[in-house]
Specification:
Shape of chain B: rod-shaped
Oligomer: heterodimer
Structural class of chain A: mainly alpha
Radius of gyration of chain A: 21 Å
Structural class of chain B: mainly alpha
Helix content of chain B: 55-70%
Largest sheet of chain B: none
Number of strands of chain A: 0
Largest sheet of chain A: none
Number of helices of chain A: 9
Number of domains of chain A: 2
Helix content of chain A: 55-70%
Number of strands of chain B: 0
Order of helices and strands of chain A: HHHHHHHHH
Distance between the termini of chain A: 38 Å
Strand content of chain B: under 5%
Radius of gyration of chain B: 33 Å
Number of helices of chain B: 5
Shape of chain A: globular
Strand content of chain A: under 5%
């Protein structure tokens, strides 16, 4: 359970139906994007956001409205982690079952078609000054998806959700030092990833 | 890298990306929000069970202070209805037993346990 000592008790006010509605309407798109960056599946991301909303309404809606953003983020991140765990168990079983069968039963399978040339990045390196904004956004979203989960979580909470270090640490269940480290690494990784795409600064 | 990397610029672009979310996705988000609010309403209007002490969650007792008094009136009416129903049932059962004994006396068919004191 989170304890937020920064909120003075005299100003505590329970969230009403309208306040909860306004909060969810304001948070739902960012929450969806966060889940999408994490799980890379639109339907799963929508399910995660819906689960988080229901949990918030069911268990914590009677909390003061000032606490809703942090509680919702905590629930959202936990729901994403639960999804990861379920996927891990599922993939373990899938790997186990598929290892019992030959990998390529199809006679037409050509290994050259599936071979990836990781050293050839000549196309990606060419910078294009006329990139449309939507393309830039797509590049940034791809770079965010490629970040390690904890770095992405810390970066988005700090710089998109506008949480301070202490709040981010409370949501992530780690120390403030770890949050700073994750944010720093995420920033460097993003900068490097965007530079590799020919985008020095968005 | 010549230019400094600014998270604020990333933030602005991400905010702009929110307007690019497709309509079916927005519709599903709206449905999810509606369901959550319905859950909130159902949670806040569940009347008598919390008062009877069936809930162990402290927020229920805190929430009672904000309930309108007519919930209490409804709960009292429910209790009165249950009590009167139980009394009526008990009374009807006793009358039926007495009439059965009367019939047995008239037909001289009293069972042995009637004579046992």
């Amino acid at each position: 359970m989170l304890v937020f000592a920064t909120i003075p008790k005299g100003h505590l006010k329970l969230a009403s139906h309208d306040e909860l509605s306004r909060f969810l309407a304001a948070a739902e798109r960012r929450a969806y994007k966060q889940a999408l960056f994490a799980v890379r599946d639109e339907h799963a991301a929508l399910d995660i956001v819906q689960d988080a909303m229901l949990k918030l309404a069911d268990k914590y809606a009677e909390k003061p409205d000032q606490e809703l953003p942090l509680l919702f983020q905590r629930i959202l991140q936990n729901t994403i982690r639960d999804y990861y765990r379920r996927q891990k168990v599922r993939s373990t079983w899938t790997t186990l079952m598929s290892s019992l069968k030959p990998e390529h039963e199809d006679e037409d399978y050509d290994p050259l078609e599936a071979l990836q040339d990781k050293g050839n990045n000549s196309q990606a390196l060419a910078p294009d000054s006329s990139l449309e904004q939507s393309q830039v956004i797509a590049l940034i979203e791809k770079a965010l998806m490629d970040l390690p989960a904890r770095q992405r979580e810390a970066f988005l909470l700090r710089y998109w959700e506008d949480m301070d270090t202490a709040e981010t640490a409370a949501i992530m269940g780690c120390s403030e030092g770890s949050v700073k480290t994750h944010c720093s690494r995420a920033t460097h990784a993003l900068a490097a990833a965007l530079k590799a795409k020919g985008l020095d600064s968005p | 890298m010549n230019q400094k990397f600014h998270p604020e610029q990333i933030r602005q672009l991400l905010n702009r990306s929110l307007s690019q979310i497709e309509q079916p996705t927005l519709e599903r988000l709206r449905e999810a929000r509606t369901q959550a609010l319905a859950r909130y309403d159902a949670h806040n209007t569940a009347p008598a069970f919390a008062w009877a002490g069936n809930s162990s969650r402290p927020e229920h007792s805190a929430n009672l202070r904000h309930k309108p008094y007519y919930y209490w009136v409804g709960a009292m009416l429910l209790v009165a209805l249950l009590f009167s129903g139980a009394t009526y049932w008990q009374h009807a059962t006793t009358e039926q037993d007495i009439s059965e004994v009367d019939i047995a006396i008239l037909t001289d068919d009293l069972p042995m346990h009637v004579y046992v004191d």
